[in-house]
Write a structure and sequence with these properties.
Layout (H helix, E strand, L loop, with lengths): L3 E4 H17 L3 H13 L3 H20 L9 E9 L2 E4 L3 H15 L24 E7 L4 E8 L1 H4 L3 E5 L4 H16 L7 E9 L1 H12 L10 H15 L14 E11 L4 E8 L5 E5 L1
Parallel strand pairs: 1-3, 2-4, 7-8
Antiparallel strand pairs: 2-5, 5-10, 6-9, 7-9
Length: 283
């Protein structure tokens, strides 16, 4: 396979479009789930909230304005082909420039501060983005991107379970996390779950799980069944749309897994609001 050369400006333009589009246009998987939930919602108040969310998405796309005022922190999962070379710049710089241009030119709220504790000064362009890169065979670059608001991010959690906790321990931790979150993450929510790996790998998996289309299932039928079971249990909590009561607390539950150590069973729960903004593309 020959080496493929990609100009850094092409990376920048691609990333810029991804983040502007995901903030203006709701994903089809989420929109369909909202419409289906509206038809099934038992609470009149909940049904009205879902109707307003759908109308909000229509307005955002028609006028190209953000779905939500919290336009999040940029996160990208990149599969970088080992036969790709970036010309006229670096991949990292090109991605950061794409995010910068999206948030400035797209009139998206800038929410990133330069230091987490002492000097919480706004960077004024929503960078730096968080980039996870995997080197894969091939001459293409695949980008899965999301912008994560912190109303829901703050409700997320990681726990280092031991194998003796079993699947019941996993379910209890997930349900405890969702119940503690209550109405704070702007339900109906998408729940991303990462199981396995190490402390940080589980958290990364849970974030990636929130970006997976909710009309898909884990390829392992055991985890797929667990996704369905958890979705039913979460919706039975009764928090409902906007936390005002109802049968639609979550739109989807996505589980991602990774091999882990014989002595551990890390589990992470990343909660995402109803917008669940995500886009992907291949260069």
């Amino acid at each position: 396979m020959e080496i493929r050369r990609i100009n850094a400006t092409d990376i920048t333009e691609t990333v810029k479009k991804l983040f502007m589009d995901m903030n203006y246009y709701i994903g089809e998987d989420i929109l369909c789930a909202l419409k289906n939930a509206k038809e099934k919602e038992v609470s009149p108040v909940g049904k009205n909230v879902l109707d307003q969310l759908i109308e909000n998405h229509k307005i955002a796309s028609a006028e190209e304005v953000p779905i939500c005022q919290d336009t999040g922190m940029a996160v990208l999962f990149v599969e970088y082909g080992d036969h790709v070379v970036i010309e006229n710049g670096s991949f990292e710089e090109a991605v950061q420039e794409g995010v910068r241009q999206a948030y400035i030119d797209g009139y998206l709220r800038k929410s990133v501060v330069s230091d987490p504790v002492f000097d919480r000064v706004n960077t004024k362009d929503n960078t730096p983005a968080i980039i996870y890169t995997s080197i894969v065979p091939g001459d293409k670059i695949h980008i899965l991107a999301g912008c994560k608001g912190f109303g829901s991010e703050n409700m997320s959690s990681v726990k280092m379970l031991t194998p003796s906790a079993g699947v019941d321990g996993i379910k209890k931790f997930i349900m405890d996390t969702v119940k503690y979150a209550g109405p704070n993450p702007c339900p109906p929510i998408v729940v991303g779950i990462g199981i396995g790996g190490t402390f940080e790998k589980a958290a990364m998996l849970s974030k990636k799980a929130t970006l997976r289309p909710i009309d898909t299932h884990n390829p392992d039928e055991r985890y797929a069944a667990l996704e369905d079971e958890l979705l039913t249990a979460i919706n039975e909590t009764g928090f409902g749309p906007a936390g005002l009561g109802g049968s639609t607390t979550a739109l989807g539950v996505n589980i991602e897994t990774f091999p882990t150590h014989i002595a551990g069973m890390p589990v992470a729960v990343n909660i995402c609001c109803h917008a669940a903004r995500h886009k992907e593309t291949t260069i």
